[in-house]
Amino acid sequence: GGGWLCSHLEACSKMSFRVVRQSKFRHVFAQQRKKEDCLDGIRISRNAWDSSFCSVNPLFLAIVLEAQGGGSFMVLPHAMVGKIDLDYPKISGHSAAVLDIQFCPYNDYVIASASEDCLVKVWQLPEGGLPYDPKDAKKNKDLSEPLVTLTGHQRRVGIVEWHPSAQNVLLSAGFDYMLIVWNTATGKALKEISCHTDTIYSMSFNWDASLLATTCKDRMIRIIDPRTGAVVQQGQGHEGTKASRVVFCGELNKLFTVGFSKMSERQYAVWDPKDLSNPLKVEMIDTGSGVLFPFYDNDTQMVYVGGKGDGNIRYFELDDAAPYAHYINEFKSATPQRGLGWLPKRGVSVGECEVARSYKLTPKGSVEIISFIVPRKSTLFQEDIFPPTKVDEAPLTADQWVGGQVSAPKKFSLKDGYVPPARTEMAAVDQPAAGEDIERPPEGEKALLKAWHAQREELKQLRQQLATAEIKIRQLSTSS
Predict the structure, then answer these.
(1) Residues 312/333, Cβ–Cβ less than 8 Å
(2) How far apart, in whole angstroms, are the C-alpha atoms of residue 99 and residue 158?
(3) Is the pLDDT of residue 439 over 80?
(4) What is the pTM of this model?
């Protein structure tokens, strides 16, 4: 009977191992800040585009606003809490709604914006943010002069994404199905990538930023070399018709996607970027209807998934081996989210064992702040849950990157706390004013105005014809 007992005990130990997985993050819990420590009274964008409508870094929180007639967003220092004044200064230089904003990962005072006016703009904030005097509204001036305006898209621009390791390199995706790689220091396009034949939903760089993953309305997942524009890998993603999103999982080098099944159930999948023919894992989440937004934290290998229009944030721990993703828990709330912004790791409260912090935009114009915490009794620095994290500097110049150099991000320890570097001034780019002409202008104000309107109309029509032709060409070349 001894043999039976041994094998029985062995089976039990195997089972118990399967039930209880060893992990430092199994007990991560979410904690919402008190109402008075959050924000309220903000006219958050109601645009139907699936964007997070915010961006956050250790100094500021930026939020896209519902603007009449133009497009603007607000940048608030973290010390600003409570009800935000209606005349708080804004960044307003777009002539149509802003669809996406993103802080530069290596300069906390620089932010890019994409808009329905077909333009991408890069802005620089003054020390401490935009000057604000609650007692004297006349002093509160909007910022309307960007560092640089990037002109090239023929349709509205839905996504901006900074290159994580090359200075002044910014990517944008437009509804002309184009991806454009920009050098923001010169204002010129480095590369136009035209491999998509439909709306681009999301993009994400791999750890050393040599590859870019995208999801698209045609349901394909593509992995692109952003320097050449070549598609390195592609495969069929989620089969549902609604938007899907992808995030490249850092040093784990997997792809994590969220989307919908044929039956419109929400699901996530894990992929090997070297082979997109089949996912490593697909799991149904629920039957919610809102688009899901994933956020991956390289330091903990955790991915947080929040749905637009519902109030929960689920979080998973990813792994190199099967089953690849382990559900940990979810933060539930009755308040739906319009967008979620995630603080870079260098901004979290290390002493409180806070491993992530989310800024949740709500439909009622408030921003709730949610901390994700590992329960620990000790107040000492917890090396195991705070491994060295990404440094906020770009190891390469734009020219080095264009020339073929690759560099993984440098890291530093949060043990002695993070001190933000001093503000560095980025030089504004000298750009000709729109519509400057070399030919002799017509004489007199009336003639000038007439010629200007005629040219503008002609330009608009030519652009539309060109965009339509390009889309047709691309659809024909992919269908043949």
Answers:
(1) yes
(2) 5
(3) no
(4) 0.87
